[in-house]
């Protein structure tokens, strides 16, 4: 299970096996962001391409379901490169015995989430497998996106503050020392919501999944504020894994402040009770953003004025003083934030 949990074990599997055998089969001169970049999506011929499979267990959980999760996950992975999602393909693998009422509930949720994101499912495939093999269903949603005016405006702003910036897309590898790190809201909500459904726990509160499409929010702040150089949705492996991806690919250190990372009180209490680190628990409706210092405060104020970003915080800064990710603790010391072995909650997406 760790091989699919988003941390070190999964990254090693992908690099040592998937990338080893599938990279460079043909010469794609137009592949601006290829497979081996391991960004949230690829770019080929100016088109952003993403495929994402979802096997969350259970298929219905507090605040969402597998249908909403599948559409949101793919849309967000396209949007964090700065692209505007254009169309989706859906592959349904249904387990024998899945009630048609459940299937209708999932499909309605997908339709509503597509409307929220402003995209359509235009093609796909449906299969049925034997009872007892899936836990209900598995859904793959693939999608394409394209460059838009918002991305162009954002890059123009970046170039005003970073003269040597020559990237056409928002990538994990774009961070430079001095860039500010922002998270758009509280972390750990989705993983704890799914865990509560898996184990029948309530934690004495209403912890809900944050699953939502964020492409329209991203399009707005790229166009109206700009200065964004890197973005990720911190899913499997949580904030800790996403920060380490930024650091490794950009070749910079990142120092975050423990007291600035937003965590709901009930999520923090539940994590303490279960021995979990909220920084390693997955999210499905948050964005980790790297932005040039001169635009950070303006972007933070913009996010806090929206429903999706009302709990946003500046949590740290990229630095040349060290490599990796470190955290300034509330007691005054520093500790390393290592890439987790894997997300501690299985099958959250």
Molecular structure report:
The protein is α+β, with helices and mostly antiparallel strands. The protein has two domains: 2-147, 60s Ribosomal Protein L30, Chain: A; 150-336, Alpha-Beta Complex (Phosphoribosyl-aminoimidazole Synthetase, Chain A, domain 2). Helix content is 33%, strand content 23%. The protein contains nine helices and 15 strands. It has helices spanning 8-22, 66-79, 100-117, 149-161, 189-199, 215-224, 238-250, 265-274, 293-304; strands spanning 31-33, 42-44, 47-54, 60-61, 64-65, 84-95, 121-129, 137-146, 180-183, 228-232, 253-257, 288-291, 313-319, 324-328, 334-336. The strands form three sheets. It has a seven-stranded mixed beta sheet. It has a six-stranded mixed beta sheet with strand order 1-2-3-8-6-7, covered by helices on one side. The protein has a two-stranded antiparallel sheet with strand order 4-5. Helix 2 runs parallel beside helix 3 (100-117) and helix 4 (149-161) crosses helix 6 (215-224). The longest helix is centred in the first third of the chain and has 18 residues, at 100-117. It is globular. It starts with 7 loop residues before the first helix and ends in a 13-residue tail after the last strand. The model has no long low-confidence stretch (mean pLDDT 93).
């Amino acid at each position: 299970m760790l091989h699919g949990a988003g941390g070190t074990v999964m990254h090693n599997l992908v690099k040592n096996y998937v990338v080893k055998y599938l990279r460079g089969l043909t010469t794609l001169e137009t592949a601006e962001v290829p497979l081996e970049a391991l960004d949230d999506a690829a770019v080929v011929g100016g088109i952003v391409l993403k495929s994402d499979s979802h096997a969350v267990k259970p298929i219905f959980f507090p605040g969402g379901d597998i249908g909403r999760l599948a559409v949101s996950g793919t849309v967000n992975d396209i949007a964090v490169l700065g692209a505007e999602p254009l169309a989706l393909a859906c592959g349904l693998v249904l387990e024998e015995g899945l009630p048609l009422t459940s299937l209708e509930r999932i499909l309605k949720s997908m339709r509503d989430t597509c409307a929220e994101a402003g995209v359509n499912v235009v093609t796909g495939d449906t299969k049925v497998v034997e009872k007892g093999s899936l836990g209900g269903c598995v859904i793959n949603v693939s999608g394409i996106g394209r460059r838009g005016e918002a991305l162009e405006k954002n890059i123009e702003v970046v170039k005003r503050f970073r003269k040597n910036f020559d990237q056409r897309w928002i990538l994990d590898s774009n961070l430079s020392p001095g860039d500010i790190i922002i998270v758009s809201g509280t972390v750990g909500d989705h993983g704890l919501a799914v865990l509560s459904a898996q184990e029948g726990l309530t934690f004495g509160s209403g912890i809900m999944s944050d699953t939502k499409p964020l492409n329209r929010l991203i399009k707005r702040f790229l166009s109206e504020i700009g200065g964004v150089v890197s973005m990720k949705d911190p899913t499997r492996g949580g904030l800790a894994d996403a920060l380490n991806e930024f650091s490794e690919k950009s070749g910079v250190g990142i120092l975050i402040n423990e007291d600035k990372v937003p965590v709901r009180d009930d999520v923090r209490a539940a994590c303490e009770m279960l021995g979990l680190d909220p920084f390693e628990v997955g999210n499905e409706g948050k964005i980790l953003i790297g932005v040039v210092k001169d635009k950070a405060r303006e972007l933070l104020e913009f996010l806090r004025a929206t429903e999706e970003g009302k709990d946003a915080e500046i949590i740290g800064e990229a630095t040349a003083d060290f490599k990796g990710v470190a955290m300034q603790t509330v007691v005054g010391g520093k500790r390393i934030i290592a890439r987790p072995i894997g997300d501690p909650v299985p099958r959250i997406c």
